[in-house]
Specification:
This protein is mainly beta and 113 residues long. The chain folds into 2 domains: 39 residues, N-terminal domain of TfIIb; 55 residues, SH3 Domains (SH3 type barrels), CATH 2.30.30.40. It contains no helices and 13 strands. Strand 10 and strand 11 form a beta hairpin. Pfam families: YjdM (PF03831), Zn_Ribbon_YjdM (PF08274). This is Phosphonoacetate hydrolase.
Amino acid sequence: MNSLPKCPACGSEFTYEDDMMYVCPECAHEWPKDGTAEDSSDVRIVKDANGNVLQDGDTVTVIKDLKVKGSSSVVKVGTRVKIIRLVDGDHDIDCRIEGIGAMKLKSEFVKKA
């Protein structure tokens, strides 16, 4: 039975000890063992389709053809999207795609480039 605490950032139960820190292998979050908890209630982890953590300014690649609502345009597989911005909501990536313009994407349809 694992007596180590769950990760406060993503809730993973697969944490491990490293010197004076606990480490989460899923989101790479580290926190001290001595019980001083940091306030991570406002930290939001956004992961791509492969489970990689996304950050503002990353470049991602679309992994599925996506229809553009209200238009006959389609964002094709393999389209690279540069300089993403993470936002709250159902569509958690705000970006600009060449030839289409400003869009919101779901992180489950992209992978980190």
